[in-house]
Request: fold
Amino acid sequence: MTRGSTPIIDSSAASATGGGEELSDPHAPRVPRALHRKLEAFIGRWNVSGRNADAAPAAPNSPIRGENHFEWLPGQFFVIGRFRHDNGAGTHAGASLMGIEEEGDVLFAHNFDNLGYERRYTLSIEGGVWRFVGRFERATLVFGQDGRSYEERWELTKDGEQFVPLCEMHATKQGAHA
Reply:
């Protein structure tokens, strides 16, 4: 459904079912679509470990340990995530909301953290590879075949053009059925 960093588009979903520009009644009941189900990959508790890169603004080249937790909000239209990652400079913690933009069929993530940052990302997926693309950061997450692990690589930019490594992390899903 995507090529490179192109957002996921689901043109079959226009009308009152939750997306597209042809929404005839913005208050009509909605039902989760196949595009919502793709967010299922994140659901669960994840142990995270990794390392900040040399260019990381806080705690460069330091180890990272922590946890990510994602769950569906009631209705299964949006996923709420919480993260807490400890590194050499302290703790990076925050929340994320993922879903589909109301005006179209593009997946998004909207993150907020304890450092005062609010970041918005457009998501794309091809197979088990997810891409988060924002104004100052971008990431690639590659899920394992069994869906119980993923590799996460973040990059940052100051000028919107030149990206440098920020951090690399490995996540493993907790529990037998997490």
Confidence is low (pLDDT under 50) at residues 1-21.
